[in-house]
Amino acid sequence: MEEVASSVETIEVEAEKILESARSRANEILLKAQEEANKISSSEMPMDEVKTECERIIRKAREEANKKAEASLLESSGVRTRADGKVGEIVQRMVDIVTGSKAK
User: Fold this and answer.
1) pTM here?
2) Domain residues of the chain, as ranges?
3) H-state helical runs in the chain
4) pLDDT band at 103, cuts 50/70/90?
5) Are 76 and 83 in contact (CB under 8 A)?
């Protein structure tokens, strides 16, 4: 019976050593994970800079697109005006031809 009790005590001591080793290893893992999380958290600054740069690029692209849209509107307005003038000229020529007002 003493041998069984001694074996149980030995097993318990070994189990406690294993548990202590597991706890120690778990604490090391948690510490490393915390350090890694801190590194990631501290690297948010560059991410903020990246976000700011992205917003700046988008704002600049929108401004440029707006300028190009305005230039296109002006150009199309000029084209329309010239087209109206050409149509007027063609209509006048046709009237002149039909009425015989201008002979070439």
Assistant:
1) 0.42
2) 2-99
3) 2-42, 44-99
4) low
5) no
Q: Under 8 Å CB-to-CB from 101, ≥6 apart: which residues?
A: 95
Q: Is the dihedral of CA 94, 96, 100, 103 positive or negative?
A: negative
Tokens 């692209």 appear where?
61
SS3 (DSSP) at 101: coil
Instruction: Please report, for residues 38, 72, 87, the alpha-carbon distance to residue 83 in angstroms, rounded to integers and kept in the order given.
Output: 67, 16, 6
d(CA 19, CA 24) in angstroms, rounded, equals 8
Of the ranges 3-7, 20-24, 76-80, 91-95, which one carries the lowest mean pLDDT score? 3-7
Q: How far apart, in whole angstroms, are the C-alpha atoms of residue 21 and residue 11?
A: 15
Which residue carries 């948690």 as its tokens? 30
**Token pair for residue 65?**
């697109």
